[in-house]
Specification:
It is a single chain. By secondary structure, the chain is of the alpha+beta class. It contains seven helices and nine strands; from the N terminus they run E-H-H-E-E-E-H-E-H-H-E-H-E-E-E-H. The strands form two sheets. Strands 1, 2, 3, 4, 5, 6 and 9 form a seven-stranded antiparallel β-sheet that branches. A two-stranded antiparallel ribbon has the order 7-8. Strand 3 and strand 4 form a beta hairpin. Helix 2 crosses helix 5.
């Protein structure tokens, strides 16, 4: 684990483990697909496996002291907010990471959209979300392996756009990585392209441990993940 070294990987389909919850999230957590949908999803996965080139990149940076509700990475101050900051503030290093399903997958999405097959487009979008989450998980595993060799623990990943960390700080985060890392570009509104991409910060240090993570942290009412959780709960009543 070396400060500012860039680690970049191209993964293959067999590296990915797709969580069904991530695929069905847009349908409502707890959704159970019928056999026809399962067959369609399996067929799509086979198509995707032939073209996809998922990629990830990360780099370690020493932490610096920061103000309340902020962290400081390599001299850059990030307003991570009251919810996320406590999980990152005690880091000795930060791993800045990106992960993406890749341009090949996005091209497939565009082609399906142009074909007018709305059902296939919907399923492909759902699988893409799961792919992005899986590539991010692979990236975090690589970060954890590198950190553990130095006797450090790691946090879960935390991303701009969630839990009070404004998405506009994506621009600052990307400034710590090479231009267009893994082929990912940012729009003026700080959205990533390819769309099925993830950026995040992972805290690394001797006192860092993974702690409770997810909607339990903040219950933000307009977060799409939280909204699906609440919708699915209402469906069980």
């Amino acid at each position: 684990m070396t400060d500012r070294d860039i680690c970049e990987y191209e993964l293959v389909w067999d590296d990915l483990v797709l969580n069904p919850d991530d695929i069905y999230l847009s349908m409502g957590r707890g959704y159970v697909p019928d056999n026809d949908m399962i067959d369609s999803l399996e067929g799509l996965k086979y198509e995707i496996s032939k073209i996809i080139k998922p990629r990830c990149m990360f780099s370690f940076y020493k932490s610096n002291p920061a103000r309340k509700n902020h962290i400081n990475i390599d001299g850059l101050e990030f307003h991570t907010g009251a919810v996320i900051t406590p999980y990152l503030a005690e880091a000795e290093y930060y791993a800045v990471m990106v992960a993406t399903a890749g341009h090949e997958f996005q091209k497939m999405q565009f082609e399906v959209k142009d074909s007018g097959d709305i059902y296939k487009e919907f399923l492909l979008d759902s699988i893409g979300s799961a792919i992005a989450e899986s590539v991010a998980a692979c990236t975090c595993q690589k970060i954890e392996e590198a950190a553990s060799c130095q006797g450090y623990g790691v946090s879960f990943p935390y991303s701009p756009g969630y839990c009070g960390w404004h998405v506009s700080q994506q621009q600052l985060l990307f400034s710590l990585l090479p231009d267009a890392p893994c082929g990912i570009c940012l729009s003026e509104s700080s959205l990533m392209s390819p769309i099925k991409s993830v950026s995040a910060v992972v805290a690394v240090g001797s006192g860092i441990r993974k702690q409770k993570y997810g909607c339990e942290l903040c219950n933000k009412s307009d977060c799409y993940k939280n909204r699906n959780r609440l919708i699915s709960k209402s469906n069980w009543i």
